[in-house]
Amino acid sequence: MSDNILEVRNLVKYFPIKSSFFKRVIGNVKAVDGVSFNIKRTQTMGLVGESGCGKSTCGRTILRLQEKTSGDVIFDGQDVFALSKSDLRKMRPRMQLVFQDPYSSLSPRLPVGEIIGEAVREHGIVPKDEFDDYISRVMDVCGLPSYYKERYPHEFSGGQRQRICIARALALAPDFIVCDEPVSALDVSIQAQIINLLKQLQKEFGLTYLFISHDLSVVEHISDTVGVMYLGNMVEYAPTEKIFANPLNPYTKALFSAIPIPDPDYKLNRIILKGSIPSPANPPRGCKFHTRCADCKEVCRYAVPQWTEVEPEHFCACHLYNDAAAQKKAEEEMENVKRSEKEPVKEAEVL
Amino acid sequence: MAEKKKSSYISGKESRKITKFNRKVTKKLEKERADANKDPNLYTTKMQDPDNVVEFDNVCTYFFSDVGVVKAVDGVNFSIPKHSTVGVVGESGCGKSVTSLSLMQLLQRPSGQTVGGEIRFNKGDGTAYNIVNTPNVIMEKLRGNEISMIFQEPMTALNPVFRIGQQINEVIELHNPEMSEEDVKKRTLEMLELVGIANKEGVYEMFPHELSGGMRQRICIAIALACSPTLIIADEPTTALDVTIQAQILDLLQNLKDKLNSSIMLITHDLGVVAGMADYVVVMYAGRVVEKGTAEEIFHHPAHPYTIGLMKSKPVVGQKVDELYNIPGSVPNPVAMPDYCYFRDRCDRTCARCKGEYPPEIRISDTHVVSCYRYYDEGTPLGYPKSVNVEELL
């Protein structure tokens, strides 16, 4: 067994845009455009970014809820996308998902016991005669009294519903849970309860989380490593302490400076980004962030930055941290693009 | 558990009785409000302090629902000084939005009614409107002109079938009927420029779906500011937006406030946003104000156990803790509020006095007021929040 429970290599997910009549593919929404990372066993990786940057799509594609366009996802030594249907079914209980909105992700027609137990029965996790006890135990672990079993989701508050969602995922005894914004629909005091519950469960059962969120203070609290995404690309990846102490990429810097701090004396040194996130169907050429970047150089507009290890364990994709060789390569690429622009025939081919 | 079931159960007979009573009360209140020729003396009062834009004085807003009266806002006291930002913080369901809707008289009618207290809105000439008694005709002139509101979800606040330009024009035309069409358009374009939209002529012709969330919120701000209101109510203006866009919008609001000389009532559940923006902070819990003071006081010397708990339960960047503090339990049922301190059952610092009735407001410094018995001896008690007996309304 290797150290990493999950390895994602160059994962790409495009959604085709079809023309209205002939249903021809006329373009692609590049939701995830080459993302790589590893998650170690019993650790939490935080995935942050603005809405529309592809972090949720990334999470769903890893679980193979959607087919990939290219790239590899290795879960515990097995390629998730190479599995047959029946093998995938066996794999399913080991990787689970907690959704963002606890109001819409629970069936209003099923009682809580059935919501949590449905998958347990389907996958035959426990023998039939132990089923009831097992569900009660799972609910107990998640802080739900077992007499809630007969009740329906509408009788619960947001925090309790999120507990039900977590219990549902936990009932299958998974190794890996993707938490897709599990606390952003909840109030601050309830948020704290759910985060504590997630942390406590992690310690107890040795879970691994991929924690997707846009709330940076929550991510800092819960994660061991953090990946920052922008427009389908990972722009920075490092252990939590490193990335918060010393963000390298200009986008990460701007993102972190925008976190509101609950202290009126704190002098906000906000880097205010101009404009909004470009369309992922037609992303800018070169570095995707160059349209909003304060430190934009000429190279940035033409050449795609390389994924480099700037400090040990601290990865970043930005031309500012190019070494001599990478700089040379980027400049060559820029020249190539410039040359091809002058020859319109070639550009037509590219399009 | 059996007891719990009993308390929420209502027989058909009781239910019919409640509905009949509700219909009677709301009909009476609605009739009063629809009276266009009401004597102006009935809704004109004086400000307690002429430097305030709005004073909430023991405001009670109740919802007459089929399971009983929900006291969404029950005896709220605070004021908004001129040219300042007041942040109202609290969990969802604590009545912060209902407070602002009471001021705008935009409550869900007829079930939602402001039944008691005074909301004084400064006219600027020494007198004030008492919004609680002001008839609809007058309110129509105030709304959007003197007081305007920015809503949480910019997509639902804008009309999807009208162009951006038309939607901003509408506000200006309504409140300035004497303006010519060209003047209105000129003013609209000015507003678009003011909120930082570069391509104003282009955006004028666009539909809301063509814009991103941040741009839409800018349009909502433009609509709210079109008539240079004296008070802007921002109801969770950045909750639906990303962090980087949130920074842009908050920056914009702060700048525009200074430019237009307005006051802002900022409603939010994000303590970080309040700390960066507000001069004064009001903390609400279960329909009542539990603590109010300057931002400095609330964030550096929080007094009420709820405020302290709220601060501790939010993770802060740069401060590592193993486990977040969480406030045990949940908010009491709004239909049957206890007769003692609403926070007592969740509080970890109760004292002997807490067994008594709901605590009075206690002044612990010139600007800092808290509703908690722990400060009863050191501070000056000001008075108890007064509920309205709904039976007496008929």
Structure description:
The complex is a heterodimer of chains A (351) and B (394). Chain A is an alpha/beta fold and 351 residues long. Helices cover 34% and strands 23% of the residues of chain A. Chain A is built from 12 helices and 12 strands. Chain A has helices spanning 55-62, 85-91, 112-123, 131-141, 158-170, 188-205, 216-222, 240-245, 250-257, 298-302, 324-342, 344-350, and strands at residues 4-18, 25-40, 44-48, 70-75, 78-79, 95-98, 176-180, 208-212, 225-230, 233-239, 307-311, 314-317. Chain A has an 8-stranded mixed β-sheet, sandwiched between helices. Chain A has a 4-stranded antiparallel β-sheet with strand order 2-1-4-5. In chain A, α3 runs parallel beside α5 (158-170) and α5 packs parallel to α6 (188-205). Chain B is α/β, with parallel strands linked by helices and 394 residues long. Helices cover 34% and strands 22% of the residues of chain B. The longest helix of chain B is centred in the first third of the chain and has 23 residues, at 12-34. The two termini of chain B are 37 Å apart. Chains A and B meet through α6, α7 and α9 of A and α9, α10, α11, α12 and α13 of B.
Summarize the structure.
The complex is a heterodimer of chains A (351) and B (394). Chain A has 351 residues and is an alpha/beta fold. Helices cover 34% and strands 23% of the residues of chain A.
Biggest pleated sheet of chain A: 8 strands, mixed
**Helix proportion range of chain B:** 25-40%
**Helix- and strand-based class of chain B?**
alpha/beta
Multimeric state: heterodimer
- Our Rg estimate of chain A from Cα atoms comes to 22 Å
Secondary structure: number of strands of chain B = 14
- How would you write the strand order of the largest sheet of chain B? 7-8-9-4-10-11-13-12-14
Helix-strand topology string of chain A: EEEHEEHEHHHEHEHEEHHHEEHH
Query: Which segments of chain B are poorly predicted (pLDDT under 50) over 5 or more consecutive residues?
Result: 1-5
Q: Count every helix of chain A, treating DSSP H or I runs of 4 or more residues as helices.
A: 12
Total beta strand runs of chain A: 12
Q: State which percent range the strand residues of chain A make up.
A: 15-25%
Q: Order of strands across the biggest sheet of chain A?
A: 6-7-8-3-9-10-12-11
The helix-strand sequence of chain B is HHEEEEHEEHEHHHHHEHEHEEHHEEE
Shape of chain A: globular
Determine the N-to-C terminus distance of chain B: 37 Å
Can you tell me the CATH architecture of the domain at 11-132 and 269-394 in chain B? 3-Layer(aba) Sandwich
Low-confidence stretches of chain A: none
Within CATH, the superfamily of the domain at 11-132 and 269-394 in chain B carries the name P-loop containing nucleotide triphosphate hydrolases
Give the CATH level 1 class of the domain at 11-132 and 269-394 in chain B: Alpha Beta
- Average of per-residue pLDDT values of chain A: 86
